[in-house]
Known about the structure:
ATP binds at residues 211, 299, 330, 359-362. This protein is of the alpha/beta class.
Amino acid sequence: MAVSTLSDLLDAGVEGRKILVRCDLNVPLDGTTITDAGRITASLPTLNALLDAGAALVITAHLGRPKGEADPEFSLAPVAEKLGDELGRYVQLAGDVVGPDARERANGLTDGDVLLVENVRFDPRETSKDESERAAFAAELASLVGEDGAFVSNGFGVVHRAQASVYDVAKLLPAYAGDLVQSEVDVLADLTGDPKRPYAVVLGGSKVSDKLAVIEALAPKVDTLVIGGGMCFTFLAAQGHGVGSSLLQEEMIDTCKDLLAKYGDVITLPVDVVAADGFAADAPHTTVASDAIPEGKMGLDIGPDSVAAFAEKLTSAKTVFWNGPMGVFEFEAFSAGTRGVAEAIITATGEGAFSVVGGGDSAAAVRTLGLGEENFSHISTGGGASLEYLEGKELPGVTALERGN
Ligand SMILES: Nc1ncnc2c1ncn2[C@@H]1O[C@H](COP(=O)(O)OP(=O)(O)OP(=O)(O)O)[C@@H](O)[C@H]1O
Ligand SMILES: O=C(O)[C@H](O)COP(=O)(O)O
């Protein structure tokens, strides 16, 4: 990665300067309680290094996918509090993103101060397809750190998004890769060169439309592609099975048919699923064959036979990349599939495989199910970002840094 790094910025000196840092603080929440702070703790080394060197920080981040307007459900308030605890210093939260409150607070920052502005996705220009709108928003973000400012990209989980606070702003300020972006890209590079075979990829989770596209690019590169979680139902539908009220991307059924025709020998789908009456922790549920999901039932986990079939593929792999839980692991009743697949990957790792878990919720699953981060070769903070990297796609947030300075 030919980019300027945090060390270059520290060598240039940050004392008395305001530094804009893009983090991925998109943590899972239960109401206002953070259920896994992994992405916050992963951000700390870079933030602490800058603060220790005398910088004042303006941090930008998103939370969830609000609709381009302020929405209390997606406020970064819980994140500001947790970040303050972790940094051991007060983190101010601006009531807006680039409005009067953010500007006034940014103006008043002195060395060692930390300001988090509100969820950048409260401003519709952040994710706009119109480059000039994004550029205008990026300019307002850049102005928060003034003439002498710099930009540090430290949100690996979001570098696959060509969004204003990730991509456009890097063109307006001297731009540097934070330690998290640099170290994640370095590790993932090991998976793109000449991975040890068999190479298995496990896909699940709920961002079906984002990640179905990844399969076309990954399938030819891997020996096994295991698909569970919310991802599998569009494939089951493509095989002509009813999926009840499970997560389904109807407009992608034909794509899945094509993928199965082309890569059927590589793709493994669940043979059974845990079908529930609704989306709730205590929903009555039963395990059914994946070609017999009853009308009105919702598949919330893969079943035990699927776990066994997936485990057989995974335990013999020498390289494993896993993104996306196999079920709604946040509910105990639907966590067995995720646990079972994780245990198979742990077994493979114990036998010398190189294993990477990528994604906010996937990494959270490893921690909340007590599976032991140390049992995997690497836990990545980025799900979509690492998948796109493995696909060989350009990561706009990294490209922008290469172009910068
Ligand atoms: N069968 C299912 N139906 C509905 N939701 C599911 C199902 N299986 C898993 N999920 C949900 O998928 C979510 C995680 O999906 P997601 O694609 O966001 O993964 P991730 O690891 O966070 O990756 P990224 O970092 O790209 O977001 C979890 O909250 C989980 O409850
Ligand atoms: O959770 C993630 O993968 C990142 O925070 C990016 O979020 P997004 O998929 O909503 O852009």
